[in-house]
Amino acid sequence: MVDIKPLNDYVLLEVKKQESKTVSGIITAPSSKEKPGKGKVLKVWDWKTTPDGKLIKIDNIKEGDIVYFTKYSPEEIEIDQNKYLLIRVDNIIAKE
After folding, report:
1. 70 occurs within a structural domain
2. Does residue 90 lie in a domain region?
3. Is residue 89 part of a domain?
4. Using only C-alpha atoms, what is the Rg of the chain?
5. If pLDDT is split at 50, 70 and 90, which confidence band does 19 have?
6. 90 has a pLDDT exceeding 50
7. Dihedral pair phi/psi, residue 61, rounded to 5°
8. Confidence at residue 2, expressed as pLDDT on a 0 to 100 scale
9. Which of 5, 14, 21, 64 shows the smallest number of beta carbons within 10 Å?
């Protein structure tokens, strides 16, 4: 497991690769339409700071959740030759 704790309102994600498949299982070429990214939450900071300085508990996202996020929002980092994403909670748009 990754030994890092994201700060502020960041979430550490492991990227989930998305393949386009037909119902019969044939892998198709990626479409030109941009899709949201998908990842598994590895670590999450417990609090978010509002613009006026108040702390709000982050309790709707937890470790192990599979989440979807806006495509251009994450910061990519490398730890022990593995790539992960750091993303702000506000850029998570859905979860499974």
Report:
1. yes
2. yes
3. yes
4. 15
5. low
6. yes
7. -125, 130
8. 73
9. 64
Question: How far, in Å, CA of 89 to CA of 9, rounded?
Answer: 6
The CATH number of residue 61's host domain is 2.30.33.40
Task: Indicate the number of domains in the chain.
Answer: 1
- CA-to-CA distance for 12 and 29, rounded, in angstroms? 29
| Predicted confidence (pLDDT) at residue 34 exceeds the cutoff of 60 | no
Average pLDDT over the chain, rounded to an integer: 83
> Beta strands of the chain (E only): which ranges?
10-15, 20-21, 27-28, 37-44, 47-49, 55-57, 66-69, 75-79, 82-88, 92-95
The whole domain housing 82 covers 10-19+28-95
Q: Which residue has the tokens 């019969």?
A: 24
The pLDDT, as a whole number, for residue 51 is: 87
Residue 31 in contact with residue 20, Cβ under 8 Å? yes
Question: Is 60 inside any structural domain?
Answer: yes
